[in-house]
Design a protein that fits this description.
Elements (H helix, E strand, L loop, with lengths): L13 H19 L5 H8 L3 H29 L1 H24 L5 H16 L2 H11 L2 H29 L10 H16 L12 H48 L3 H26 L3 H19 L8 H27 L4 H28 L4 H22 L11 H12 L3
Helix pairs in contact: 1-6, 1-7, 1-8, 2-3, 3-4, 3-5, 3-13, 4-5, 4-6, 4-8, 6-7, 6-13, 7-10, 7-12, 9-12, 9-13, 9-14, 10-12, 11-12, 11-14
Length: 423
């Protein structure tokens, strides 16, 4: 069996984590950076609010669909090859989107096609980087590193509205040309400086590989599916609220530019800070992770019911800040539980399936919030209902992964062995 641990020569350091953290940071710019300019894009392209929200949806849905394929490839041909290919496609899609916005005054259809290419590239970036972190880091270092990865993801969300607003001062589509400038250096750094653990055996035949994946879900499917659902609902809520907040600030307060970007960053900054702290503290303590998931879900459920009942920008900003805190408690814990649930040979597909459902959550948030913008009570109460369902299922079904040995688990395992073998 292949070792789950990197060799001493492959022991990861700060440079490794810095390069891997840059990947989700860049990936999240693909959606978050364009949120501040969506109203402007709607006017310039002559399309409706729902149509312009498809610039997010048609990035996220293809990514969600391709992520499982990227996970299978990562398990079979290596993580680095998949990530580098994904970064190249991601940058190319951004370049094409920029040209689509320029030629002939802007082509909405060509722009959507370019975003699909970007989404396909994104499928091989951050989700597979999370897999590689799970390979390279062990024990408490894994939970801390995954917390940093989630914080980097959140920091991308924090800075992207500001970056998007700054770049939009040139023109609303200028940001698309920034993607290749960011992707190429990170791809080169990944290829040159990071060594992934080498499998000691050839990849298993696909039939055996499918059998192993089926066995994972047969043994752990109830809590894994619940964790997937919780991650998807969390991302749906965050991106839906961000879309709502962007529209609210522009339509109600005529706010755009850097000031709007800074306000959109408030809930994301809360997510970033809390995700980093959570990842640093939970280590491998499964009981603590479950408690934090439940607290985060409860906080988001309560906070998401508030917007229809309040009037005023600062009340809304305070409420979205608490939504960000809730997401920051949930996501690092789910990341650690899921990446620790399986071995190195199957980690790619399991973690990628989780990344896929997260992308579906991101994809559905803005169009649902755009379509139901005129029915805020239905919108926010329905979202609260989804979060409440995720809370109940998490309380009932999330448990310690069979591979995860948290604090105190080893002593319980020894006690169980003594009971079975008293001699």
């Amino acid at each position: 069996m292949p070792s789950d641990k990197p060799s001493a020569s492959q022991h990861p350091g700060i440079l490794t984590l810095a390069v891997l953290s840059a990947i989700p940071f860049i990936m999240v710019l693909g959606n978050s950076m364009i949120i501040p300019v969506l109203p402007t894009a709607s006017r310039e392209l002559g399309v409706s609010s729902f149509q312009v929200s498809l610039l997010i949806t048609l990035f996220s849905v293809p990514a969600a669909m391709v992520i499982p394929v990227a996970g299978i490839l990562a398990d079979r041909i290596g993580r680095k090859k998949v990530i580098v290919t994904g970064l190249i496609l991601y940058g190319l899609g951004g370049l094409l989107a920029g040209f689509a916005s320029v030629i002939g005054g802007g082509s909405y259809g060509f722009l959507l096609a370019s975003r699909i290419i970007q989404g396909i590239g994104a499928a091989g970036t951050a989700p597979i980087a999370m897999v590689l972190v799970g390979d390279l880091f062990q024990g408490s270092s894994r939970s801390k590193s995954l917390g940093i990865i989630e914080a980097s993801n959140a920091m991308g969300k924090v800075l992207s509205p500001v970056l998007g607003s700054l770049i939009a001062m040139i023109t609303w589509y200028a940001m698309f040309f920034a993607f290749p400038l960011l992707c190429v250096p990170v791809a080169l750094a990944l290829w040159k400086w990071i060594r992934e653990p080498a499998a000691k055996q050839e990849p298993a035949p696909l039939s055996e590989y499918r059998k192993k994946i089926s066995m994972v879900f047969k043994r752990q499917g109830r809590w894994l599916n619940t964790a997937f659902f919780a991650g998807a609902v969390t991302m749906f809520s965050m991106f839906g609220v961000l879309f709502f907040l962007s529209e609210f600030l522009e339509k109600t307060y005529r706010m755009d530019g850097i000031r709007k970007g800074l306000l959109l960053a408030v809930p994301l900054l809360a997510l970033c800070a809390v995700a980093y702290i959570t990842g640093s503290k939970v280590r491998q303590q499964t009981g603590l992770m479950k408690k934090l998931i439940l607290i985060g879900m409860a906080l988001m459920t309560l906070a998401i019911t508030v917007p229809p009942w309040i009037d005023g920008m600062w009340w809304l900003m305070t409420d979205t800040f608490f939504i960000g805190i809730g997401a920051g408690l949930i996501l690092p814990c789910l990341n650690t539980l899921i990446t620790s649930a399986v071995g190195l040979r199957e980690r790619g597909i399991i973690t990628s399936l989780y990344g896929s459902v997260r992308f579906f959550g991101v994809a559905l948030g803005p169009p649902v919030y755009g379509a139901l913008a005129d029915s805020p009570y239905l919108l926010f109460m329905g979202n609260a209902g989804l979060l409440a369902l995720a809370l109940i299922l998490s309380a009932l079904l999330i448990r310690r992964p069979m591979r995860l040995k948290g604090k105190g688990d080893r002593s319980r395992l020894l006690l169980r062995k003594r009971r079975l073998n008293p001699a």
